[in-house]
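User: For my dataset I need records formatted as: sequence, then structure tokens, nothing else. Please produce one.
Assistant:
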Amino acid sequence: MSKITPLLLILLLPILVACSPVADDHFVINRAGAYMPVWIHGDLDTDSYLVVVNGAMTTGRIYHWFDAFRKLEQDYAVVYWDPRGAGLAEGNPADSTMNLDNFIADTDLLLDTLWARHQPKNIILVSHSFGGAVASGYLLEAQRRAKVSAHVDVAGVRSYRELYTIVRGIMLQYAAAILADDSRDESYHAHWRDIETWYQQHTSHPKSGTSASTTHYKYTKSLYKEWNYDADAHNKKLAEDMNSAGFDDTISGPFNPFSFAYNSQHFTENFDFDKVDNSVDDLAVIDIPTLIIAGEYDAGVPPDFAVTTYNSIGTAATDKHFSVYPGADHFVMYDDAERFYNEVRQLVEDL
């Protein structure tokens, strides 16, 4: 697949620069064929730098538009970046580099660069969703772990195999209860009978991009009705609030949509999620202060999965914390910005 031409990038650059929020520091790291932009917002003289390790395929700058992170920027330096296969990342990385080991190595280069440029006393990883796989994988190795003072794990996916096992169990439990309830109408029973049969037949995590993966994603959304949760209304409001904060113009906003589209496809076609397997058996070596956060209504990464991470890391009980946000979905930092800000701030202040 061809990439954006240098001429087109030159033509778009003035628009992107003129309309993007000004960062307090901005640089690009380069490794294994990928040029990955970094933006730091907040107090560069602070002792504590919060490094956002974002979800798959999106731009790290998306978190800058959330009120919780805007408040954190007033207290600390918050580092946003686009790793390979995400947002504004450029270059021509080989297909073979789209793997967890390279995401971890890219993160290591970012942290080393932060130390060289700013010498922060504390670096705190704030990972979200797929970023949880990168962060947990990073922390498994002692030399890397020594560079990090604390970890905030938000709806983190450290193992897609273990996550699927837990979600599959939840779906089968709901199916059994619903099918045993004679007050439900037959069409609803038929829907959940299909769900029960499908999960009985699919015992392992479906490969990303397949019809089975699409079916799994679709069926988990059936939980929303059981929870009386209107996900469509929630997502509409999320989009409206993001747009009102300045994220609505994709051409002149924080990322180039052409790079975004290419990166999303490049990542999806080449990244093997089945190889992301930071098992509970491996997590005991992680002993740094940790805050684990889950949303009550996150059907994709439910609190039951977050509990297994909390129980398995080796951090002392006094230094690890687990929070479930009532009524929150996958973007808990949006759903309860004040609580998120307060809990993250407390973790940092306790260092």
